[in-house]
Amino acid sequence: MNGFRKVCRWLHRELGFFAVGLTLVYAISGIAVNHVHHWDPSHAAYVVNSRIEPTGDGETEVVAPLVLERLALREPVKETWRADREVLQVFVQDGTIDVNLVTGEVVRRGNVKRPLLYDFNFMHLNKGKAPWTGIADAYAAVLIVLAVSGIFLVKGRKGLVGRGGVLMLLGIVLPLVYAVLARRG
Amino acid sequence: MRRFVIALLLLAVAAAPAFAKEKVYGKGAPAGDVTPISTVLANPDQYVGKTLVIEGTVVGVCAHRGCWVSLASDVEGQTLRVKVEDGVIVFPKEIVGEKVRAMGVFKANRVEDTAKKCDATREGEPEVQCTTVYELFASGAVCDWK
Prior knowledge:
heterodimer, A: alpha+beta, five-stranded antiparallel sheet, 52% helix, B: alpha+beta, CATH 2.40.50.200, five-stranded mixed beta barrel, 17% helix, globular
């Protein structure tokens, strides 16, 4: 048994260090995407108001180049679109610029990637698809080994036959009780 | 010969991002037989239930779940919504302004002002004003990222 416990301790220690990075990624991203109804965990929205000299609501072929010239954007323009008679939309990499052709009002709405969180969520939500599926599966296997090896780390009153066992049972039973009650409700 | 191979490899590396820019969502959408959005919306009831391929610039995207995009028609100010199954296809926010081709079944939804499903035969309730909202329920799409 001592040999087995030694192996568990070795596995738990080595894999524990190895899994720190991804555990933090999944845990932080987990909290972030858990509250997706309250905020966008990957992007921060912004609105910037400004004004240009109005071009008038003439033909799109005429007003669109004028608008672009007056906006004097330093970034590439993806596309322009005449949303209605008075509004020309200009699409750029991180958002949309609404230009009122009659009043000259400019409203730029966009989203910027949240530092770190965007990448954490990218990994967590498996947006990389196939290659990441393999990494995520391997990480899940590591977590299983960590959980199982953790059970046998401590012997005696604080181990599986004592307080450790009680805590482990609580950790299994409490979520199950919640799931059963939630399903009935 | 060695120089030629190296040049070819460099060319391939340089060209790779260009090829990688076409992103397929879900089952994708074939390039041929694209029906203009303006044609569909001129006689929408004629297309209800039919499988169509449409194409246009994305002028709107579902902010929360990426579960729909609005495509601009070739007619000024006209758009058609492309709906996809929640969670199966997720359009990123950055897709606005990109050209998208989508394939799916054209649908007509009767909706009330409250955006609930319109049921004209509910007993005991006053008649509600309903409008028909057309959309393409897409099984796939292709985006040529700029």
